[in-house]
Amino acid sequence: xxxxxxxxxxxxxxxxxxxxxxxxxxxxxxxxxxxxxxxxxxxxxxxxxxxxxxxxxxxxxxxxxxxxxxxxxxxxxxxxxxxxxxxxxxxxxxxxxxxxxxxxxxxxxxxxxxxxxxxxxxxxxxxxxxxxxxxxxxxxxxxxxxxxxxxxxxxxxxxxxxxxxxxxxxxxxxxxxxxxxxxxxxxxxxxxxxxxxxxxxxxxxxxxxxxxxxxxxxxxxxxxxxxxxxxxxxxxxxxxxxxxxxxxxxxxxxxxxxxxxxxxxxxxxxxxxxxxxxxxxxxxxxxxxxxxxxxxxxxxxxxxxxxxxxxxxxxxxxxxxxxxxxxxxxxxxxxxxxxxxxxxxxxxxxxxxxxxxxxxxxxxxxxxxxxxxxxxxxxxxxxxxxxxxxxxxxxxxxxxxxxxxxxxxxxxxxxxxxxxxxxxxxxxxxxxxxxxxxxxxxx
Amino acid sequence: xxxxxxxxxxxxxxxxxxxxxxxxxxxxxxxxxxxxxxxxxxxxxxxxxxxxxxxxxxxxxxxxxxxxxxxxxxxxxxxxxxxxxxxxxxxxxxxxxxxxxxxxxxxxxxxxxxxxxxxxxxxxxxxxxxxxxxxxxxxxxxxxxxxxxxxxxxxxxxxxxxxxxxxxxxxxxxxxxxxxxxxxxxxxxxxxxxxxxxxxxxxxxxxxxxxxxxxxxxxxxxxxxxxxxxxxxxxxxxxxxxxxxxxxxxxxxxxxxxxxxxxxxxxxxxxxxxxxxxxxxxxxxxxxxxxxxxxxxxxxxxxxxxxxxxxxxxxxxxxxxxxxxxx
Lengths: 443, 327
Hints:
Chain A is an all-alpha fold. Chain A has two domains: 4-178, no CATH class; 265-442, no CATH class. Chain A is built from 21 helices and three strands. Chain A is globular, with a radius of gyration of 22 Å. A five-stranded mixed β-sheet of chain B has the order 3-9-8-5-6, with no helix packed on it. A four-stranded mixed β-sheet of chain B has the order 2-1-4-7, with no helix packed on it. Chain B is built from twelve helices and nine strands. By secondary structure, chain B is an alpha+beta fold. In chain B, helix 3 crosses helix 6 (198-211) and helix 11 packs across helix 12.
């Protein structure tokens, strides 16, 4: 399938070039985000009736993992309000064009942190507390506020969107899975970029700011770190930036060899499996252990969680690698073939989220009418009772997602194996076993 | 652009102020009564004020599990208080005084501790005179052992007792005061002068106890027992309710931390199916235990919640665990 350049359409192009529509969305999102923080802090402590839990962990999560990430990649990052206040401080403006004076410290992020290990750690930290985080409004409020303050704080110290790029726990996995999305921002002609001396897309100009994501668009080959902020479309003086529709998983044809990204794939795969067991499984002891943060049972749970993600999953994967002969170094084979876990992990999350979201979606109606749990009935839906939705389709849809993910992963494995010239069979077996385990956990 | 920048900043600031201010404003202006398990704080606030004749509108919300709300000494069915949902209750008081509200759902091991008070003031500031309970006037030590030295081999039958009473003069046992101040064992002893066998004497005792209640009173007692007592004492009265073991465990902890008498430790709930215990207890003694509670044993004080008639109905039902009454 050939690419379709969306920015050929003048309407789309003008919308993307204009800062105002994006800012309008940012403002609405920011108000909603802050309201979610406040609802978490002052609203009812009953999660299923609090806006913060229902709209963040059910509604937003459903949109993110079932729609935004699979179809729009980093589409959420394009409208996420978290960087807005920090960027305002950094730029001294929310809409106005740059005045060339750097605000605050404007330091470069140290090289040792210019990877996604911090995002891996921040995601794992939240994952270990997820049972409490997903059910306790004030914890959700504190975490959301913490993310906003961290983004603001980092904006005053470092240049660009340091929080989004290097620390945000959500950004890490969105970036990983955005490689599978059928949308991309790329340059049209490499030569134009090569000849462009000022590189305003990266350095900024009077037309706009340098890439907030610290990416040189001329070198973009993957979606992973492009936040779709559209700033480069505004700054490129040569009209050389395009937003394209493309085939799914186009980025995976050229596997990454970075260990931080490889481990991100394992973290996401393992977390989906553990969440399926803890949040959807019938094991009360496991739920108690995950919920009672700080107890000895929780410490065991945390240890098992981390062991599963950092030792068991990559351990068996490495064993598979060792069974194959190749002149390519093991580390490179490991990182390259872990690309196969990206579609697999995404579909694990889709399957898990289908169950989680369809079971709990009916809470949205009640929380919409009474977001703080104060006895309101704004839209007449406050008395809506909990009712799992579309249960008849759930198991077939989950099976379809998991089996589809396995096939998708197998195709990715074939390509990655060709790149590093090894047999794909161990990874096929690995993916099959992981999918079978996930099927058992969910069905 | 300057104007657009100004408008944008204004919108962001106003939006943020609204998102922060509105929830705080609405939250502070909505007088909700929160309830959570006793371990998490129980009722908040737990003291309310009302005026005689004026409706008291309450907005109740549970912060964790399903609770119930009812006010003692009033003809009121408990209402459910659901997690995250506001339940509205309107109360009206005819008399001034201090009323107790309490949780009516078995929400946790310390469910029985979940009480609050409503101070009702009104034109008549003089509270109603309170009658002194009989166990006090009779100087009955309700904490002293009251075991029955003998117990029947089989469950005494009131039907059989009714047949036997035709041959006896049991008129003095028909007196309500006599019944209330004597245990079944004491009446059994009183029947020693008759030619009846032990088993027959217990049947007559059973009949006497039945004659002091009605089927309606027993049904009411059963309902009250199921709602308020069965969580600890068990639906069959065996002292094995769902919280019984936990109360005993809590007692072990309290025993270790208390510096006072060990008699104050929490105990396993009383077993009403135990004839030694029940046949040695008079209705007045049981009334005292219910009115006052177990003083540190885990048995709550019900005097502020049950009416006098409700307590007698409950006591009549408790004896039905020993006696076979006519259906």
